[in-house]
Amino acid sequence: MNVEVLQRSIRGRVFSDRQTLENYSVDSSLYQIRPSLVVVPKTIKDIIKTLLFATKNKLSVTPRGGGTGLVGSALNSGIIIDLRNLDRIRIFQNHVEVGAGVHKGRLDQILEKHGKFLGPNPSVGPYCTIGGMIGTNASGSRSLKYGSTIDNLLEVTMITASGKMLKLPSRTRLAQSVVKLARQVDRQKYPQVSKNSCGYRLDAVSNISETQKIIAASEGTLGIVVSAKLRIYDLPKKRILVILGYESIKEAAIDCQKIVKLRPSALEFVDHNTMKNITARFPHEIKCLLYVEFDANTGRNVSLLSNIIAGQILYKFSDKKSIAKWWTARNSALYFSLKNLLSSKTLPHIIEDATVPLHSLADLLLLAEKTARRYGVRLVMYGHAGNGNIHIRLASKNKCKKTINTIAKEFFTQVITMKGTITGEHGDGIARTKFVRMQYGHRTYELFYKLKNEFDPHNLLNPQKIVLARHSRGRQQLLL
Ligand SMILES: Cc1cc2nc3c(=O)[nH]c(=O)nc-3n(C[C@H](O)[C@H](O)[C@H](O)COP(=O)(O)OP(=O)(O)OC[C@H]3O[C@@H](n4cnc5c(N)ncnc54)[C@H](O)[C@@H]3O)c2cc1C
């Protein structure tokens, strides 16, 4: 492999030094894979040349955004291609055209000046990129009302494994193959949930005009996204945030079914462990909280809310500063949970993103508690309750990898029985790719193989993610 040849042929940078390779060997997960090269392209031509170089040198290519993914989706051997220079933003009335490397924080600031916002809002805030959000089908608290990335994705422009530019939707051969495979899908095998980042989202495609949706949650395995058109919304005139307190998680989960009928813009769950990190007073009997936010008919909705809930209204905020402060506390739940669990030892985050139909939310929360008790591990839970999506962190000093796999198999079996998904927003990555077949069954999994083969017949793009190839090109190791 002659790295100099690649460096001379592109305008961007090629890195092969130890420090850079180590930086890109990790993301926000607990995994580590050292790449062979890191390329930071400046132009689309650079990306195409990198793909041709990779093909010639039998190296894989994995796109990377902010590296905030939680399951190792952006880690691989071979070449990591960092899209940070594709950072153009163009704002229109109801949509925005953005480069894949645009950081969400920068986009938010610009949109706000235009009185607009993007629906999906991962709690990681400003640090993730549009490419990464598409790659994982990211969502967030406001996805309850405004949908996940897949629901807001109007068009994708990408470079395929063969180095060709492809726009979706379009009447191209690849788009037609997507529709053909989508028609063979048994939609009953898909989870019956409002958000899903497991496998390929063939269920979201009914015709050519929806073919761009197949790229959402595809984790860089079908192409390298260079830009996208995403729907945007008018900033609401007013928001109100209500904090509800509950004596039991079951009571809170049951209330969620009533609360969603009022169309809140967010409905989030915070457990007892996470509550300890919020600087506010709570009555001692309160075991968990629900955050309920409305951005329309606020006064009317709050009075309706007080009539239908079994919990207590603890706080109500309508000023921007307090709302932002309370959201910061909720968005730091992952940080709090890791801080809390540090005295134990965190375990690989495999069962951390399950999503079930809302009527099964209480069962999901109780299942997590039962699992923790059964295996003697500590547990922290929080998440997007209105979507039935709960993040779970487990910790134990002395549990081994084998136990985690046993826990994952048992837990996922129950989640799938509830018609849920093993991942609502973080994706499959290294942590869950081996469970994708279990989620969908053999027939749908075979369609996934066919889809991957249509886009990437030589398994060049982010191999071993979503579908397991016969031969692995990369080795991975756990940091902990
Ligand atoms: C503290 C914290 C809180 C979080 N909260 C949320 C949350 O509330 N909701 C949520 O959904 N997620 C959340 N996440 C997960 C993560 O932030 C999102 O998945 C995010 O969208 C990843 O974006 P990224 O730019 O960092 O992508 P990366 O991690 O760099 O990549 C993610 C995947 O996208 C692929 N990808 C990246 N760029 C491209 C491209 N140009 N073309 C094709 N594929 C590409 C990568 O190959 C990889 O498979 C959280 C993470 C952290 C650390």
Secondary-structure map:
Layout: H1 3-9, E1 13-15, H2 18-23, E2 31-32, E3 37-40, H3 44-56, E4 61-64, E5 79-82, E6 89-91, E7 95-99, H4 104-113, E8 116-117, H5 130-136, H6 143-146, H7 149-152, E9 153-159, E10 165-168, H8 173-183, E11 224-231, E12 233-234, E13 240-246, H9 249-259, E14 266-270, H10 272-275, E15 288-294, H11 298-308, E16 312-317, H12 320-331, H13 333-341, H14 361-375, E17 378-384, E18 389-395, H15 401-417, H16 429-432, H17 436-455, E19 477-478
Parallel strand pairs: 3-5, 4-5
Antiparallel strand pairs: 1-3, 2-19, 6-7, 7-11, 8-12, 9-10, 9-11, 13-15, 13-16, 14-15, 14-17, 17-18
Helix pairs in contact: 8-17, 9-14, 14-15
Bound molecules: flavin-adenine dinucleotide.
Task: Provide a descriptive summary of the structure in words.
Belongs to the FAD-binding oxidoreductase/transferase type 4 family. GO terms for molecular function: D-lactate dehydrogenase (cytochrome) activity; D-lactate dehydrogenase (NAD+) activity; FAD binding. There is one protein chain. The chain is built from 17 helices and 19 strands. It is α+β, with helices and mostly antiparallel strands and 480 residues long. It folds into three domains: 82 residues, Uridine Diphospho-n-acetylenolpyruvylglucosamine Reductase, domain 2; 146 residues, Uridine Diphospho-n-acetylenolpyruvylglucosamine Reductase, domain 3 (2-Layer Sandwich); 181 residues, Vanillyl-alcohol Oxidase, Chain A, domain 3. Helix 8 runs antiparallel to helix 17 and helix 14 runs antiparallel to helix 15. The relative contact order is 0.15. Bound molecules: flavin-adenine dinucleotide. The site of flavin-adenine dinucleotide (FAD) has 36 residues, from strand 4, helix 5 and strand 11. The site of flavin-adenine dinucleotide has 36 residues, from strand 4, helix 5 and strand 11.
